[in-house]
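Two entries, shown back to back:
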Amino acid sequence: MAQEIKIIHTGDLHLGMTFKYLGDKSKLHRRDCQDVFSNIVDLCIKEKVDSLLIAGDLFDDPNPSKSIVTFVIDELKRLKEKNILVFIISGNHDPYKKESIWFEYKFPSNVIIFDSHGLEPKTVGNLTVYGIAYTNNTKEPLDNFKAEKSDNFKVGLIHGSTTNIKSEEEPEYSYRPIKKLQIDNSNLDYIALGHFHDLLEIKGKVKCFYSGSPEGLSFKNSANSSILLVRYSDGKVNVKPIKTAIREFHTLEVDCTKLDNDSELRKILDTNFIINYQGAIGFFTKGIMNELRLFSGYDILYEKVKTFVQNELFDQKVNLEDLNILRNLSEIEAIRTIVDTFKKEINDLTVQDRGDSEIRNYIKISKCRPFVVKQQQSLIPKKCVFNRIVGDSHLELRFSAFLENCEDVISYVKNYFGVHFKIDYKNADGNISDYYPDFVVKKNEKEMFIIETKGREDLDVPLKTQRLKQWCEDLNKAQKKAKYDFIYVDEESFDKYHPSSFEQLEKNFREYKD
């Protein structure tokens, strides 16, 4: 029996969508969509899947906010740590074009982003994924396409429209047309589609599904938003939907012509959508656990949250059965107060400086396995073991050139994800994240420096550098072979001082040192 291959198929998350039509609940639902993505990553790890497939429109815009992109990259890093691959295609909302997210940011090495105008195969082990970048609305991706014969699990990853979703209510139905006959003749084992926001099977010779959005995006969507867990073994494909929706959209028709006032309408709404404090407290508890990535202790935390809401959240003790109290709990201010309070208290209990440390492992740069980097501007180094330095920014390339010209530097290394040098820290949201410094510099046999370069400072920079400072101090206490220090290099100061030696860099760049 051949080894089973497991993948999770999702798409159309539209992260960064504004949800303006939800009014003051828009921020809450934006957070729901991010929480669902975190839950999908958790599910990939729990199910020990081989890969995650994202069928386009991961983002709602080709240039989403930096905070959204950083969130996604941090989540994808969690999959990298578990050796889970991620295959991503762009969609009509986040198309593959210059100056878009796909060119502006560096994704972890476990992420494969398709950049071809036609279906191209990417093979890893017994899995071959045929993906296509979204660059226009009209091209038929399966026209004259036939996958090569192989014993591998052959999967198509496409963002487009079948005739099944043609509707006056779907103005984008004609984008990237996919015909039923093309699907049947594709020689693929499974086709993972994106673009349509509800779960839909395109029945035929080849297993073909829209996974739909994992979290409802509008009142058009069904309540059963989910992802698809796909198993392949001995030539057979099994598809299982797993519900992921945190919040559901329901449409309720009410005849208001016979109602005298708003209170009567409110009574009807409360009757049709039964609100109870148990559901509200459960919602808060799950939200806290999701943000802190807690996998057990729900029953204990539930009682703590209940007690806090009942006795501490308001000016006085409240009756949780009171509908007015429950309505107040749906306000964004109340939700953030509850979640942020518990995050802070839990982190204060679990993230503590113990005052001691130990060295458990070393990273030997010369033993790093080969890895692939993007085709972009680079530098050929003489003082680095890597054959090419590819910078995530122009500043990184300039700094690499500076190190090459420093006579008081023996060697250095650009800290790619493939080096696996990372430091955990508590970010501005109160969560534990991984921080990858930009450079490690060997000044001489007794002095080592960790360098962080930055073009524009964000909220996490002081927290990262504070943690880096502590890391160096701990390492210096734990060993005496070499002294470790750090330097923060911002672009404005780098342009201002124009250091000509590493010694000058040490002297002039003192930010976060004292």
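entry 2 starts here
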Amino acid sequence: METREALLDLMAKEPQLTSFGFGIYNGLPLDLKIRDNEYAKCREELRTDTERISVLMHWLREHIRPRKTINRQHSSYGLKHYVERYFQAKGAPIYVPNGSFIAAALLVGYSCRRYPGSPNPDFGMSERSWTLIHNVITRLEGERALQRHTA
């Protein structure tokens, strides 16, 4: 199934999933019209983010092994920052919306645990895989810093 159709199916099954994560930013005014407009905007941002979600799906399949149990060490919000740092260290910066990371992980098939009131779920992703990614990022960032200082 193409990413676009798979994403639309996922969004139908997960009506709270937005570009922000599950739900919208809680710091918004309580005015219902403002919140409804923000929800619609964030849903549309996610719905149209198929290219980035496809890149994230490929990256997750290549780098992060699934595990049977939920890894509570990192939420989606922390993991999306690992991905951003990885691409930055590789010289190809990318911004990763939390909801796009969540959508990519769900579409790849990782198990997920949501928490009431939180936009950030945890996933059944290997901690060892993330440790290896962290090590790659650290090495690449170190190499780039050294190049800047010796140039």
